[in-house]
Structure formats: C-alpha cells, structure tokens
Design a protein that fits this description.
It is a single chain. By secondary structure, this protein is mostly helical. Helix content is 43%, strand content 4%. The chain has a domain of 169 residues. The two termini are 31 Å apart.
Length: 348
C-alpha cells in the first residue's frame, strides 16, 4: 500500500507580497521571521520591532494602564478580553519586542494573581459540590482540577516577552504538579473525569516547552512532550473512539483563540514543541491546505470577540480582522503559512 503524498502549498508569491504590504508591522514581522525564515535580529527586523512597539494596535491594547503601569481593571486580570492576562498574551503573539521594563507592572499583575496562596492550598474533594465549596486547588481521585490554561498562558506570555524573574519558575512548578497521568490537564470537577482537556492542555504544553528550553529544565521538556501526545494521539482534532471530529469549532479557524482551541492552534503548539514532523500531524496539515482560499490566504471562519473598548465580557479593544468565508484574514494566514513552512509543506 503506497503512502499518500503530503499536500504542498505552492504559488505563495502573491499572498506573501500582500502580507509584506500589510499596514500591520506585526504581520510583516511574522512574515519575515516565520514564513521567509529571516533572522529576527537583523537590522531591518529590529526596526520592525520598534514599529510594533509604537503601533496603533499596541497603543490600543495598553491604553488602560494606570499611573503605576498596571492595566485596568487592576483587580481582574482575567476580564474577557481586555484584562492584563489577555493583553500580555496578545503582545507575546504579535511580536512585541522582548525585555521591555514598561511591561513589568502588567507581569506583576499576572504573577500576583496566578501565584496567590489559593493555588498552593490543596484539598481532597469527593464530589463536585465539595470541589466548589471553597477556594483552593481541589484534588479528586488523585487528579488536580485546575484551570491550567491560565497559568500556562501566563507563563508562555512572560517567557515570550522576556519578562521572567525569580517567581516565574513557580508557574512551571504548579503546572508540573497538576499534570494528569495521561499527560495533560483538566479543570473538570466531576469525580469520574479521567481524560485531559484540549483547552486546558494547549497553553501548558507551549509554556513548559519554552520554559524547559530557556531554563534547561529536562523535567519541563519531558512534561511538554507527554502533553503533546494528548493532541497527537487524536490527530489534533479527532476522537479516538471513531475518528470523528471532536468538536465543530476544532476544525474552524479563529484569531485570537484566547482560551479556546482549534486545529491551527494545535499545529502551532506542535511546531513550538518540535513535533510538527510527527506523522499524526498529517491529517491536520492536509486539512489546513484544503482550507486555503482562491486568493492564496486563509479565512477566520469564527471568532470569540466583539471589537469594543467597553469593559464587558467578550469585548476586545482591537479588531483582529473579523470573519469571512471568502476573504483571507491576515492573522490566520500568516500563522497558517508559518506552520506549513515548519512542516516542510511550503514551497517558498
């Protein structure tokens, strides 16, 4: 039986040219470094980082800083989608220049929140009602039931932005302690829940991979590799039981994902953790190629935000290109091409 030929994306010149002409410096920077493979430290790309730093998008994301440099609402870093947690995640993904001390107050907001004593206060809970009866970290049948995506996203953002300090390793320690026997994480407080969640596992996987690399921590690297199997064993979007699609949103394209999951987000994680060449990424890569538009780009088929500066759940202060079945979304397109290049599926 012959092995199917991997789908390769060709005729990319026009779409790459469109991306390079984008008014968004972040799109141009991602194109240069992720698709074209340019050195991020080259003079031209360092100039692009300066442009990102002073861009209108960044100014909008950071507009709610108070006199101390913290982001309002100060007491709710997880406010969807304008709290400090999400803003730092956005900055980390769009190429904001690393090591900026002006972001330290926002980093401190995250660390003060996610390293609060409640996350170190573990208690046994035998029922769902008991798990919700008090603050702390419930343990049910030997499994920690925590929103590990919160700590994982914070750790990933801080590391990507070059803002790590002596406290950062505590985020990694929590993730390692909370890892489930199957390699992932889950917040499900039903006692019989025994399988990890894609949503809770995505960011911890990415975070522990980059933490292991930067800190030289072999335990973290192995933990990230175990977590990657959660996705790979399911081909990034399929049920193990019958091969069907796990959830309709998993096979749509979004930007940003926030705490959600889709198969492109899974492919980005596999590229970061060094598993993009695993054969089990094949179906997801093929699906990505199939979803390419006639104009050469990829669409955002669904979104989790409304563009508004009003501090209401679901509002984001900036527009990420909206959705369309016919027109490419620059943010989705640059990520899709970057993943395909990492997988050797892009003829540039």
């Amino acid at each position: 039986m012959s092995t199917p030929t991997a789908a390769i994306v060709t005729d990319t010149e026009s779409v790459i040219e469109k991306l390079m002409e984008s008014p968004e410096p972040s799109i141009r920077w991602k194109t240069r470094t992720g698709i074209l493979g340019e050195d991020g430290d080259s003079p031209s790309n360092r100039a692009l980082l300066d442009e990102i730093h002073s861009s209108e998008r960044v100014r909008s994301l950071l507009a709610r800083r108070d006199d101390t440099g913290r982001l309002e609402p100060v007491g709710d870093v997880y406010a969807k989608w304008q709290g400090a947690h999400w803003v730092l995640s956005h900055l980390a993904d769009i190429g904001y220049p690393p090591g900026d001390p002006d972001l330290n107050p926002i980093r401190d907001q995250l660390l003060d929140c996610w390293l609060d004593e409640q996350y170190f206060d573990e208690y046994e809970a035998k029922s769902k009602s008991k798990a919700y009866s008090r603050q702390g970290s419930p343990v049910m049948r030997g499994r920690h039931r925590q929103h590990a995506s919160q700590h994982g996203n914070a750790l990933w953002s801080i590391l990507r932005l070059g803002l790590a300090d002596q406290r950062t390793e505590q985020l990694a320690e929590r993730l390692l302690r909370w890892q489930w026997p199957d390699g992932g994480w889950n917040c499900d407080k039903k006692p019989d829940a025994d399988s990890s969640s894609f949503m809770e596992t995505l960011y911890p996987t990415r975070a522990l991979s980059i933490y292991g690399e930067k800190a030289g921590d072999e335990t973290a690297r192995k933990a990230a590799s175990r977590a990657a199997r959660i996705f790979l064993d399911r081909y990034l979007y399929k049920r193990r039981s019958d091969g069907g699609v796990m959830h309709p949103e998993f096979v749509k394209l979004h930007y940003p994902l926030y705490w959600h999951y889709d198969f492109l987000g899974g492919l980005k994680a596999m590229a970061e953790t060094g598993f993009i060449d695993d054969a089990n990424c094949g179906p997801a890569l093929d699906l990505l190629v199939e979803m390419r538009l006639p104009d050469g780009g990829w669409p955002a088929l669904s979104k989790y935000y409304k563009c508004s500066t009003d501090l209401k759940p679901g509002n984001d202060s900036v527009d990420w290109g909206g959705t369309s079945k016919r027109k490419m979304n620059e943010w989705v397109t640059v990520d899709a091409l970057t993943v395909l290049r990492a997988a050797g599926r892009l003829a540039v």
